[in-house]
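Why do we bother with a discrete structure alphabet at all? Because it lets us treat a fold like text: something you can write down, compare, and reason about line by line. To make this less abstract, here is a complete entry for F-box domain-containing protein. Read it the way you would read a sentence in a foreign language you are learning: slowly, and without expecting to understand everything at once.
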Amino acid sequence: MSLQDLPVELVVMIAENTDSQADLFALTLTNKRLSSILLPKQMAINAKFHRATGLTWAVRKNDIALARRLLESGAQAHINDRIIDPWTLSWELMCCNVSTLDSYDKSISPWISEPWVEAAALRESGKLSTPLYLAVDNGSYDMVRLLLNFGANPITSTDHNLMKTPIHTASKKGFTRIQWLLHDAVMKNPPQDALDLEEFMRWMP
């Protein structure tokens, strides 16, 4: 039996077990029948089986309509997740993902140049950051508001430097409206640890 003749249930099962989004798109574009079956399920499959990588892409591109559709299709379950957990990186990459990365001089330690380049690429991809952090870093007020409305945690430390938080970045970049947006979200659901709240308030205007 050819792929074209497989029952819909088996086509969906194959799609759900693909190793990458690239494979899923290739399968979807194979012919009209597969496209008609899989296109409507792309977002749900991405959210359920690929850690909602589409949401990270939508946030980086500031595509609010797409981000909303992904969140409504199941990506909300991963709204506070990173695609790659920084703690799973190798020791070399962890060293390159601290705050010294921006000022790192490869001429001092040439042996670490390859991990440094890889770490920089990971950071640029957004895979080490939560969607909210990316939205704040981009200065997108509307995207930040959307993510907060869907349950994004405004206090979670994030990005390549685990000491950074969305409020820290908003303060450093002078995004005052976003700071107050984050503030309102925190006040609606204050953290249990008073130290977390104290640290958050330290970065308010």
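What the structure line is telling us, in plain words: Confidence is low (pLDDT under 50) at residues 96-112. The longest helix spans residues 113-125.
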